[in-house]
Amino acid sequence: MPIIIENLSYTYSPNTAFSHDALKNISLTVNDGEYLGIIGHTGSGKSTFVLHLNGLIKLTSGKIIINDIDLSKKYDYKKLRSTVGIVFQYPEYQLFDETVEKDIGFGPKNLGLSKEEISYRVRTAMEMVGLDYQSIKDRSPFELSGGQKRRAALAGVIAMHPKILILDEPTAGLDPKGKQNILDLVKTIKNASNATIIMISHNMDEINQNCSRIAVLNDGQLKYYMKPEELVNYGREVEEMGLELPTPAKIAQNLREQGINLKKGIVKQEELVDEVIKLYKGVQN
Amino acid sequence: MALIEVKNVKYAYNFNEQDTIIAVNDVSFSIEEGEFVALVGHNGSGKSTLAKMLNGLIVPMSGDVLIDGMNTRDDDLLYDIRRQLGVVFQNPDNQMVATIIEDDIAFGPENLGLEPQEIEKRVDWALNAVGMQQYRKGMPFRLSGGQKQRIAIAGVLAIAPRVLVLDESTSMLDPKGRAEVLDIIKQLRAEQKLTVVLITHYMDEATEADRIIVLNKGKIAYEGGKEIFLREDELKSYGLDVPVHIHIANTLRKSGMDIKNIWTQKELEDEICRLL
Amino acid sequence: MRDIALGQYYPANSVVHRMDPRSKIIIAVIYLVGIFFINTYTVYLATILLLLIVVLMSKVPLRLVLKSVKPMLFLILFTAIINLFFTAVQDKPFVIDLYFRKWTVSNIIFEARWGFLHFGITWTGVNNALKMALRLVLLVMGPSLLTLTTTPVTLTDGVELLMKPLNIIRFPVHELALIMSITLKFIPTIMEETDKIMMAQRARCADFDSGNLFKKAKAMLPVLIPLFVSSLRRAEELAYAMDSRCYRGSKGRTKMKILRLKARDFLGLLFFAAFLFLILAIKYNWLYTWFSISFLSRLV
Question: pLDDT class for B53, splitting at 50, 70, 90?
């Protein structure tokens, strides 16, 4: 079941001197199994938007329907939050329990599941994120390395078996290898569970790796919502919003402006390389 | 003698009886005054430990760190060492002590026992150097990450050190914040020829450096110029990445195009134009 | 919104704002002491007038000063009611003296007996309740005016300077002031982090709202523990940053902002000292001059 959002608006501290329109009339639909990327400058409303999807921010204006749950009516919040899981930025800072097993089991426990089910979910979640169950389950989460902590936090959300997984800047603070590992991990999770993935990121290169569609937010408004290869044709507009196109697209755009006849819609490095080589071979002949 | 001398430095962390991690394993290098050195390495390569060793926050288990000839092992010299070498850390929130920005920048000069007028002058100058003058009377928690780091840099600059060490100061920032910080460094280099040690895991930040030192698993894996950018596989084995445009250049070269050595994206574009 | 103005500072450029925090703190203390010795309505009125004049001088909107009483309203009402009903019932004449007219009435307005219990509402009780309420209201508005006109930073600077003499007995004045400053700086940061952690645990279906007090406390562990751990981490990082900026305690430390007492500070201190003196004089009948006996005592 898709996520349907119609005319979503939100104002912080309405009727006060500090009132701020964080979201202005956003409408979009996310299909099952999509990998959606959300990009926008700091303060553009990405977090506010995403927090509506699992009910952490109460819907005040507009319509949201997730998996047939209508957020404007009364709903079971546990059902919603087990359907829509959110991994926040630097999730490792939320670990708290005595053992890794207990921490990861926190979500399932809150859902009232049986001991066996909880244990099963913890084990499978740990395997999915690459943490060895036997050697790590009884350790204190605070003993783990930074990378392991983040995986444990991710496992804690996956253990809820969400159909929709939202990740807020999952690669924040990691080194290049770490970043790639997390992105690969998200892909693995998606393939294994067929969950719908929504990823917030600042990095166009990261978003363009796996996302099927990109939503660009600017000052609370949804400016663009399209496939990566279409978005790159709006280079100027994207840049004006303080964002950057993925590097290959930027280079392609600049080259086109200098008269090089590169085809449109180049997003990935490999595409750029192929196209340039093609032209080069053409020139040589 | 070089301004910074690191000689056969070793440091290990003990988590419990079994896990001893050797963070820094026999590392030596030196940095001359006026240089811009990038210290790059994957997370856990020892670079943050090294950063803290440069101003004596951590003392090596064996080996020595000498700043302007002063050994960091000597507690009595730490104050003078820290007047010469300032460090800006990673977390923008955890470096400030005061609620008002000008008071926080004044913290360093106040510690130096300077006269109030001199402190005011330094606060003025430091705020100007990082382009944050209009926030002088403001409060830190309203600022963006990049702005907070600029304040942190100003706080260190106010001490007027000869060396500025940035310990992963951009890791927690968004692209805009990163660019702000890197621009400041460029400016400071241009205006004062400040010695800068940039510790990072982003290779693209190293493109402006005079010298690049790569740390891998506690040891120096490479020390030299930007040629390392051409050795992608080697960099990958160190857990690092080349900037996208350099990767593209390398790939094009492999496919037969005679792309000269380029470091910036613009240079790549110019080269491609030239060849097509 | 992190604009819960720390200590509700209201920025304005008034003479009160510009006064030295030390004098303001001392004046606040004198004022508080004085309130406890006011015993006549005339003096209460005079004090209210004085307060209003200071509020005017401070350019702080009166409604903000009055707002500060709000949290205490319940306590004030409660105290007043206690005084109203539980003042010992004495059947004696009660004199209401309004300077230009006097009434003498029976003290008792309403009384009831119930076995040993004899309680009721008397004019004495009304008098006590009113005076107590006035005292509490004035008590609260004074210090709030202090925080409205002085930034937390300036206040801590003032407190630090006032405590300086304690250095002689090795009291860690500088360290305490620094702790206060750092705490103030981190309050919004930690509040923000608490929000984030709560949201993250809520996203995992944690429930902070239902259950009895014990249950609720237990439910906060997933928030308190990470908060505690991260605070320790912050402390360590901050210590590194401070050391890196040549911090070595108060040894050889100077300050950029030097507080200097000016004429307005001395005038203010003098004025309020006189105010306190007058209050005490009226209460304890110190001035045995014709002026006090005949004029002031007639106002009581």
Answer: very high
